[in-house]
Design a protein that fits this description.
By secondary structure, the chain is α+β, with helices and mostly antiparallel strands. It is built from four helices and nine strands; from the N terminus they run E-H-E-E-H-E-E-H-E-E-H-E-E.
């Protein structure tokens, strides 16, 4: 394990990551290590909410067909989540948070999955370390919520072996879109 931000192919090795982060905290004489682990949970979704918005004409046709079919089908279970990451933008976002942490005497560590992560496995871990708990706790929730809203990571549901963009559970990245 190398830096403060690490990307792993597939599910995270949570025990190894935690052990490493604990050693980092000890080596820096920190007294607080606040860790968050995101686990892929079993979830049934309505695939109607997953339709693409790229072609509105096609979308309306597909939505009408889905409405008819949904009367005869049940929600589908997610087998896994899959992730795409734009690393340069993630690194920039993470470094801005690392600078905020430094100003309070804290440090942020983060690991995320790239590719498929099955149910019951972890796709996201972060930790805030500092010499005292107040600095770590003050950043903890805000960092996690900002990660969810603004990190350049795209999530897909894996259903019947197919990746389907998780549109209903996604948020646009601030400043993204087509320039006019």
């Amino acid at each position: 394990m190398q830096g403060s931000l690490e990307i792993f192919k597939g599910a995270l090795p949570t025990k190894e990551i935690y052990a490493h982060w604990e050693e980092v905290a000890k080596a820096q004489n920190n007294g607080a290590l606040c860790v968050f682990v995101g686990i892929v949970r079993e979830e049934a979704i309505n695939t109607e909410a997953q339709t693409s918005t790229q072609d509105s004409k096609n979308q309306n046709t597909q939505k009408n067909a889905t409405n008819i079919e949904s009367q005869n089908t049940e929600s589908q279970n997610i087998e896994a989540l899959s992730f795409d990451i734009y690393t340069p933008l993630l690194q920039k976002w993470f470094e801005s948070w690392q600078e905020r942490a430094r100003l309070t005497g804290a440090q942020i560590l983060m690991a995320h999955s790239l590719g498929d992560v099955p149910k019951g496995a972890s796709s996201y871990m972060c930790a805030v370390i500092s010499s005292k708990r107040k600095a770590a706790l003050s950043l903890y929730e805000e960092f996690i919520e900002d990660f969810k809203a603004n990190a350049p990571i795209w999530k897909y549901d894996v259903i019947n072996g197919k990746r389907i963009f998780a549109l209903s559970r996604s948020t646009p990245i601030q400043g993204s879109g087509v320039l006019k």
